[in-house]
Task: inverse folding
């Protein structure tokens, strides 16, 4: 069996061995229900509250801000958007949504439009530039249109969900600039930081983030716990009903072991992030070099979401490469990404054609076509994503395997 070379960390990260040890320890010691009044239950409750503080420390939140534990980013996004809308109903809420946002945010609109018309919610799409970033001019236009109708105050609320790092191209939105514009009109910003939190320093105060979400499987942990940050003073109503857990906002007995482990992992990330980011940028350059060498004399390639004109700096995440492969002739015919994926998989290379949330769809990536790629270009694109643990010898081996696969497809 081939050695696994894992290049799909944007889907799920490999589990940090220290997290495994945490979970084993907590399963032995912290299995009591944190809502119980006896000492064992109270001790588990104290550890959960400490985990909240560890999350606050990582993202620069204040003590009075809410940290709500959920099951994943999808639930956190649903709770954030639907809970925000419900907290202001029957007053009108405007949602300015990004075309390139995560499917959980995209599909909330479909659900509310179909089943909850009484929530008095109006949706406006925000347009993106050629790199997938939100266009501030588009955002400003919609705010100005609303102001002509009604003042943005207690009777009209505006929420702007933003994906911090695009999960296919790695392009980073200018969140601070977006939040400054949104706040100047009295609106609020929701940042989906699932792809960013493990690879980028985020401070909710410095960047003006009002609501934020992320999830355990993107930070060196198993799946099972998500985070919703809500700045003090912003109201979120529950969308499920049951007990009084999580500030009466998210009912259900807490996933104790995972929450405590997540707190510890957030503390590690805070302490190690600077070194890990440096390591990832080195890996990024090595990966680019490996891809260049693999294609040399065989085919051409292009990295999506990059600019080379020097006029408009595009911030990129250090851990995602979205790459088109196409023939080295005048035809510019793209390699079929499904065929290339299959060959790479046979050699033990794990990567993807795009977002894991959409990997079973046959149509081309909506994100790539939205930033100007043709269907053929999108269907010749693979996403390679990694974290600071990727070894240099694995990058070297990946380059050799990629070249073999490209040669095999060219001969066919």
Result:
């Amino acid at each position: 069996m081939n050695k696994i070379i894992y290049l799909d960390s944007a889907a799920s990260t490999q589990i940090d061995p220290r997290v495994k040890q945490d979970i084993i320890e907590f399963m032995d010691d912290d299995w009591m229900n944190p809502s119980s009044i006896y000492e064992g239950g109270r001790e588990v409750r104290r550890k959960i509250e400490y985990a909240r503080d560890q999350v606050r420390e990582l993202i620069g939140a204040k003590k009075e801000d809410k940290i709500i534990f959920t099951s994943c980013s999808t639930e956190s996004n649903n709770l954030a958007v639907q809970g925000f809308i419900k907290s202001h109903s029957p007053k009108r809420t405007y949602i300015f949504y990004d075309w390139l946002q995560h499917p959980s945010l995209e599909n909330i609109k479909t659900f509310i439009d179909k089943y909850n018309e009484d929530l008095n919610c109006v949706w406006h799409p925000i347009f993106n530039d050629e790199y997938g970033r939100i266009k501030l001019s588009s955002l400003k236009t919609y705010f100005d249109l609303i102001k002509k109708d009604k003042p943005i105050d207690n009777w009209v609320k505006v929420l702007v969900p933003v994906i911090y790092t695009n999960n296919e191209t790695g392009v980073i939105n200018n969140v601070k600039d977006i939040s400054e514009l949104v706040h100047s009109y009295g609106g609020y910003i929701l940042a989906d930081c699932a792809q960013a939190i493990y690879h980028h320093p985020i401070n909710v105060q410095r960047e003006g983030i009002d609501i934020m979400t992320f999830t355990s499987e993107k930070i060196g942990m198993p799946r099972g716990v998500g985070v919703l940050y809500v700045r003090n003073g912003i109201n979120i109503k529950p969308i499920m009903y049951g007990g009084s857990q999580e500030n009466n906002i998210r009912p259900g007995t807490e996933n104790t072991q995972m929450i405590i482990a997540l707190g510890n992992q957030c503390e590690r990330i805070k302490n190690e992030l600077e070194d890990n980011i440096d390591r990832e940028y080195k890996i990024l350059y090595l990966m680019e070099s490996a891809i260049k060498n693999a294609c040399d004399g065989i085919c051409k390639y292009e990295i999506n979401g990059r600019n080379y004109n020097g006029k408009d700096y595009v911030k990129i995440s250090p851990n995602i490469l979205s790459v088109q492969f196409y023939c080295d002739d005048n035809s510019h015919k793209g390699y079929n990404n499904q065929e290339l994926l299959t060959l790479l998989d046979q050699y033990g290379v794990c990567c993807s054609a795009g977002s894991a949330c959409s990997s079973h769809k046959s149509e081309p990536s909506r994100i790539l076509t939205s930033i100007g790629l043709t269907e053929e270009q999108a269907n010749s694109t693979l996403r390679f994503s990694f974290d600071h643990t990727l070894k240099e010898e694995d990058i070297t081996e990946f380059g050799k395997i990629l070249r073999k696969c490209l040669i095999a497809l060219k001969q066919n």
Residues 17-269 form a domain with the Aspartate Aminotransferase; domain 2 fold (CATH 3.40.640.10).
